[in-house]
Write a structure and sequence with these properties.
468 residues; alpha/beta; five-stranded mixed beta barrel; binds 5'-deoxyadenosine; binds iron/sulfur cluster
């Protein structure tokens, strides 16, 4: 699918707005004003927020986690399930009070939820104290929006979708110094029937390889030890573009960089997960041996209704191909329980599939109807209570699997990147290549280094000892 697509630099106009905001702020505040960014949803949003924060810092804001002391509050929202949206509605309601206490406070809502017309309309009508509402396609115009509002302009609602554009060279303020997110593509073409993402994030657009490689080099030079490549479906990287590099090729290019770092990626759609990609994972020593491969359901009938475009058999063949190449690989998945029309028999096939695959962990969701998607118009006769019972059954089955896999790790040695303090004093924690957390004796200075850890016991966590 070759659409004309273009990459542009952050327009000079926006850089000029940044300077104007900076001078407005320095005139109005004696101490630098504070900005609080709250992020909901997936890593793509976290990554977007890092770019928003980058712009805010450039404009003179100091970042804070404390909303009560903030002069600018932004919610970067998620629309993937109703629950995520409900939390946002609750939180933006509190802005009214905050504005009374802190006149001059500016409040903004952006992200996937804000991209929807119906949401923007509700904010326009019922939340008059929200100043800026903008969608996922125009976050790079934040300097302009802020300038207009700070200099006395009206409320701003900007939902335009410039679907074939990627705006590069935004400043980034990364949340972590050890692990970093690296977006390689935006949007989704898959239109799974339950999913709102293609409507709010638009069509797939791949970043140019040179941009990704340059950003990775910067991250490595800054000491980042784990880079996670992001996209709704990283396996279709490059398919929309005129350059000749696919995801497997990109992994190989990144793997060739010198340095002491690891590469992860998410998310992989099974229909686009090729043997070429599995070969690249196997061959690339820096690529972690973990595959997040959402199956959603174990029933062919439901997979078809979901428009997933693979069968249970295809999926299991892919898992077998991955394990044949990388016996140590861990798998994780997303599962939706209670898709419209799903019967208990369909659900039992999902249970059966997770037992067959043996995922190390699962992200499990009860189906949530999303306005505008095909599934929201399908008949959905199973009660919420019934779906809740299936859901509990799924969690229990997965707990048993995880417990069994964890037990099987005892006595084996894994390389971990130490990334946190442990639960108990005198302990630290780290992730294996397969993304399993191990705890072991250590000091906070160990964070950022690699260790070989032999797993010794499983209690409330997996504990081990460092092998010298
Ligand atoms: N209801 C429940 N879960 C959903 N997901 C996406 N849309 C919905 C929905 N409408 C889940 C899928 C996807 C994950 C990110 O969120 O499992 O893989
Ligand atoms: Fe949604 Fe499917 Fe695209 Fe994932 S692949 S973002 S579930 S439409």
């Amino acid at each position: 699918m070759n659409r004309e697509q273009h990459t542009i630099e952050l327009p000079a106009e926006q850089l000029a707005y940044m300077e104007r905001v900076a001078s407005l702020l320095s005139e109005s505040y004696v101490v630098p004003p504070k900005a609080c960014v709250t992020t909901y949803g997936c890593q793509q949003n976290v990554s977007d927020s890092e770019r928003i924060q980058g712009m805010l810092v450039k404009m003179g804001y100091v970042l804070t986690d404390n909303m009560d002391e903030a002069d600018f509050i932004l919610y970067n929202t998620c629309a993937v399930r109703g629950h995520a949206e409900d939390r946002v509605w609750g939180n933006i309601g509190t802005i009214k009070n905050k504005k009374q206490k802190r006149p001059g406070l500016i409040a903004a809502v952006c992200g996937c939820m804000a991209q929807q017309e119906s949401v923007a309309e509700r904010i326009r009508r019922s939340y008059p104290y929200i100043d800026l509402v903008f969608g996922t396609h125009v976050l790079w115009r934040l300097p302009e929006f802020l300038y207009r509002r700070l200099s006395g302009g009206g409320r701003i609602f900007e939902l335009s979708m410039e679907e074939n554009r990627i705006v590069e060279s935004l400043p980034v303020h990364r949340d972590g110094t050890l692990k970093g997110w690296l977006p390689i593509m935006y949007g989704c073409n898959n239109f799974c029937t339950y999913c709102i993402v293609p409507y709010v994030r638009g069509r797939e657009r791949s970043r140019e390889p040179d941009r990704i490689l340059a950003e990775a080099e910067e991250m490595i030079a800054a000491g980042i030890k784990e880079i996670t490549l992001l996209g709704q479906n990283v396996n279709s990287y490059g398919l929309d573009a005129s350059f000749d590099l696919n995801f497997a090729g990109l992994l190989r290019r990144l793997n060739a960089f010198p340095g002491d770092f690891r590469i992860r990626f998410m998310t992989s759609h099974p229909k686009d997960c090729t043997l070429e990609l599995l070969d690249a994972m196997r061959d690339c020593d820096k690529v972690c041996k973990h595959l997040h491969l959402p199956v959603q359901s174990g029933s062919d009938r439901i997979l078809k209704l979901m428009n997933r475009r693979y069968t249970r058999e295809d999926y299991l063949a892919l898992v077998a191909a991955a394990r044949e190449r990388m016996p140590e690989i861990t798998l994780t998945s997303d599962i939706i329980v209670g898709f419209p029309g799903e019967t208990y028999e369909d659900f039992l096939q999902t249970l059966d599939l997770i037992r067959e695959v043996e995922y190390s962990s699962l992200f499990t969701f009860i189906y949530s109807p999303r306005e505008g998607t095909p599934a929201a118009r399908m008949s959905d006769p199973i009660s919420r209570a019934e779906k809740g019972r299936w859901f509990q059954q799924l969690l229990k089955a997965q707990e048993e699997i995880s417990e069994r896999l964890n037990q099987a790790m005892i006595g084996h040695t894994y390389q971990v990147l130490c990334d946190d303090t442990g639960r108990a004093p005198g302990y630290v924690a780290g992730h294996t290549s397969g993304n399993i957390v191990l705890e072991f004796p250590g000091v906070p200075q160990d964070i950022g280094s690699y260790f070989n850890v032999t797993v010794q016991e499983l209690t409330n966590a997996l504990y081990g000892a460092v092998i010298k």
